[in-house]
Amino acid sequence: MVNIKEIDGKVRKGEKALFKSSDLSVKNCIFEDGESTLKESRNINIKDSVFKWKYPLWYCKNVSAEGCALLETARAGMWYTDGIYFTDTVIEAPKSFRR
What we know:
Structural class: mainly beta
Largest sheet: 5 strands, parallel
Number of strands: 12
Order of helices and strands: EEEEEEEEEEEE
Distance between the termini: 32 Å
Mean pLDDT: 95
Radius of gyration: 12 Å
Helix content: under 10%
Shape: globular
Strand order of the largest sheet: 1-3-5-7-10
């Protein structure tokens, strides 16, 4: 059985704020500055959250995002990511997807 860690209503700042996380539920969060917020993470569910800076989901696996926003400054957001699913999510960031 997998133990899911929950993060709710937080403002995260800085480089790699949740780097290499796994089995995580993120709700109502704002990721301010700092590159690579969730880089190399796995099995992540994100809901009603905002990404404001570069490379938030690089090299991630099995990510779902619902009701989220990747602002223009969250460029190059999902490079080299596998198994990513979006529902009701706004992606304003340029160069969002690669491979």
